[in-house]
Amino acid sequence: MTLTLSIDVARWREHQQAVVRQFPGLVPVCKGNGYGLGQLRIAQEAKRLGAGVIAVGTVREAAEIQHVFDGDIMVLTPGPAPDDVVLPSHRVLTTVATVTAAREPAGARTVVKLRSAMRRHGITEQELPALRGAMEHLRCEGFSLHFPINRPRPYRPETEAADWIDRLQSAGLPVRTLFVSHLSADELSWLRHRHPDTDFRLRTGTRLWLGGRDVTEYRSTVLEVRPVDAGERFGTAQERARSKGHLVVVAGGTSHGIGLRAPQVLHGLRPRLRHLAGAIRAATDRHLSPFVHAGERRPFAEPPHAHESVLFLPDDLSPPASGDTLLAQVRYTTTRADRVVERTP
Predict the structure, then answer these.
(1) What is the mean pLDDT of the chain?
(2) Three-state SS annotation for 310-331
(3) What is the rounded CA–CA span in Å between residue 95 and residue 57?
């Protein structure tokens, strides 16, 4: 009874090496659920890649990872560590995003976050004079910019980064290192040509861990298959089956992240039409599951349970057998596998 994530390790590591070659000085991001692969696992992979620094989301994640990664650990979320978290101060880079915070950690290794077009955390241009005074006692390891993924014209993140470097230098704050995210190799090359004295360090997680095509996949075990007649009641809500078919119980429920969705920002007609079609299915209790059978995602028969889901297959479709596995098309960053296994071609 498992929801299993399998990894073609040889191809996965080939992909990692290709990304590292493309982005010298890359900072692997090892946050959250470890992109579905497990935080400790990708921290170990980052160590194998020879990374000198990795980035995590919170100080608690840093506390967990410090035992498997012996390099520097950058904490991306600004804020002080809770009193119950003990971190190796000589290896942890905390992020400060306000002038007040820059005055507090005397002697601590810090990265100063600048406010980008994201408008989420960060020092503003108007605060640079005050920041210069606050940083006199700060052990600043560099500055940081977090860029949006979408690029509405005429916005260019590399231009925003270059403008920030000019502002900092004009304020008497030299930029020896700038940590950035969501930039392409060409955008970084442009920046390095314009500011050769600045070391640009790309932070990336999705591109590094999940960018390889068909290198990883989730599969769910079929636990039980039972025929159902039209009008027959089933499940916790005792709804009636709309037609004759099969109920297929598969591993994977809400405790794994199955059936949980985050709000989306839609751009363009086609995504809006897909969303509308999904809303119509939801209004008629025909929610699509992530589980694939006979080449298509199949609908939930009822809302998923904690550890398993029930699918409905129409009578004209041959059902899988107990013990078979179904491909699960899930969002890796919100899904937790029961086990992670290595596979060979």
Answers:
(1) 91
(2) EEEEECCCCCCCCCCEEEECCC
(3) 10
What is this structure's pTM?
A: 0.90
**Residue 231 contacts by C-beta under 8 Å, 6 or more apart in sequence?**
240, 241
Q: At what angle do helices 185-194 and 157-170 cross, to 10 degrees?
A: 30
| Cis peptide bond upstream of 154, omega within 30 | yes
Render the burial of 255-271: b for 16+ CB within 10 Å, e for the rest: ebbbbeeeeeeeeeeee
- pLDDT value of position 261: 76
- Contact by Cβ (8 Å): 238, 308: no
Q: Which residue has the tokens 């794994």?
A: 256
Name the residue among 54, 60, 127 with its Cα closest to residue 96: 127
Q: List pLDDT tens digits, range 111-166.
A: 999 999 999 999 999 999 999 988 877 889 999 999 999 888 999 999 999 999 99
Beta strand extents in the chain (DSSP E only): 3-8, 27-28, 53-56, 72-75, 92-96, 109-113, 139-144, 177-181, 199-204, 216-228, 233-234, 239-240, 245-251, 288-293, 296-299, 308-314, 325-328, 339-343
CA atoms within 13 A on the CB side of 180: 33
DSSP 191: H
Which residues make Cβ contacts (< 8 Å) with residue 65, sequence separation at least 6? 30, 39, 40, 43, 54, 56, 73
Q: How far apart are CA 338 and CA 328, in angstroms?
A: 13
